[in-house]
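pasting for the record
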Amino acid sequence: HEVNHTVEFKALDEVTEVDLPARVVDWLEATADAASETAEVTT
């Protein structure tokens, strides 16, 4: 095993038909948008 400074999905991409990096980015963007909207409402 090794420790990398970045997340790698090479093996997962090879065995699934899911674009996991894109899904992670989509989730991060949605989470950031929701947090931003919550912050706007409370300020």
